[in-house]
Amino acid sequence: MDTFVINGGRRLSGRVRVNGSKNAALPVCAAALLTDGEVTLRDVPDLADLRNMYRLLGELGCEVVRGERGGGSGGGGGGVVKTGARDQALCHARYEVVKTMRASICTLGPLVAKRGHGRVSMPGGCAIGDRPVDLHLRGLAALGCEITLEAGDIVARAPKGGLRGATVFLGGPFGSTVLGTANVMSAAVLARGTTVIESAACEPEIVDLARMLSGMGAKISGAGSPRLVIEGVKELSGVEHAVMPDRIEAGTLILASAITNGEVTVENCPVDSLLAALDRFSAMGIGVSAEGQAKDPNRVTVRVTCERVIRPVEVTTQPHPGFPTDLQAQLMSVLTLADGNSVITERIFPERFLHVAELSRMGARLFRQGPTVIVSGVKELIGAPVMASDLRASAGLVLAGLAARGTTTVHRVYHLDRGYEQLEARLNALGADIRRVDDENLAKPTVSGEG
Ligand code: EPZ
Known about the structure:
Elements lengths: L1 E6 L5 E5 L4 H10 L7 E6 L3 H12 L3 E4 L11 E6 L8 E2 L1 H4 L9 H8 L1 E5 L12 H9 L3 E5 L2 E5 L9 E3 L8 H11 L5 E5 L5 H12 L3 E3 L5 E5 L7 E4 L4 H13 L3 E7 L5 H10 L1 E5 L9 E7 L7 E4 L10 H8 L5 E6 L7 H8 L3 E5 L2 E5 L8 E3 L3 H13 L3 E5 L2 H4 L5 H6 L5 E5 L13
Parallel strand pairs: 2-15, 3-14, 6-7, 10-11, 18-19, 22-23
Antiparallel strand pairs: 1-23, 1-24, 3-5, 4-5, 7-9, 8-9, 11-13, 12-13, 15-17, 16-17, 19-21, 20-21
Helix pairs in contact: 1-2, 1-7, 4-6, 5-6, 6-7, 8-10, 8-12, 10-12, 11-12
The structure holds ligand EPZ.
Ligand EPZ binds next to helix 1, helix 5, helix 6 and helix 12.
């Protein structure tokens, strides 16, 4: 397994570009199942999760051709072309694929809408929580799906005559569901009649998916609001779609600049999708100012500066437009060096704190009480061996390593590769000192006596 060896204490400076969004690209790829036409996607990041999605689409009878890099409208990652499904009889998203990427669940809605049935392995939990899919199933059942659980697989069958429009409430104990909204919206576009999704997710990635579906001929209104209205149509055409920039990667890069007290210019930054995060960053003393006039508020070049001393803040993660849970770990790393006590409350995944113990190993002073962590700022972090546990916790540990005195080794960085493309190369281009090594080549720690 790969490990990052990070020599900390180096200020970042220079220019970096935000890639296309993983969390927009995944449901967008799944929605390509809704048409026999050709779907060309631009600005798709080259990530492990996307490669797993292409493998899944292949097993579902599609042909996926990976285009060259740089073909995107944003000039970002490569294109992906999915030609029409070669074999519509292949409708089983197997456990072996789903266990590596739980977002596979968002193929269920398109499968049952287009082919009348779909079989997707029930996604398991993960390091950040149980990750139930009851809201997904509530929405699909409201459209007339007969849903059964067979040997660990969710089997969904459309009624004779196909899915029918309905009104469904998708709110759960932690707010709405992003992929659940994507699943139900992607099914409703081919249902007979009108569907109203109340308490829909408002995330920008849902807006991006709605934009792609509309380009295929779907009739959707209210995307980005808690109330989605979809008028079903008979069929959808192929489309060419550029995936929105990754707001979580952008926030991570801004925080990487800040934690090193650097001055980094971030290109292709989706400012309009990051307002809650930018509000907190500003309160901390992190300045993010646009360079020139951007035509698209979600593709802005910004300059990041940071006051010498980071100010403590209170942050509670919320569904969009609130502070995104996917930036919580990265923010915590920065706040460990703030001048005072901060309070972080996690309202989406109350167990999303596996990075707390690892940051404490680096000298951070953190006190967890249930879904809340008090972060008592320290003067410096000390480099240490730490273990990555999930995608965003890994990013938080890398940021801590950038600022720490001495060397930090972040183990199991395969978690990071799921959501950040060549992160170490891009940070090194800004002045970081990160080496990716195979665990085998790491100096074996001297075996200490049992203590
Ligand atoms: C998406 O996951 C993102 N993943 C997550 O990003 C992100 O953290 C999450 O949304 C919240 O913003 C992708 O888009 C691929 P949810 P999703 O359904 O859709 C509960 C990352 O790091 N819930 O919005 O699976 C759930 O347990 C990843 O990039 C139900 O109770 O999340 C959670 O508490 C991690 N029943 C809350 O809702 C359901 O049926 C929000 O989950 C579904 C969800």
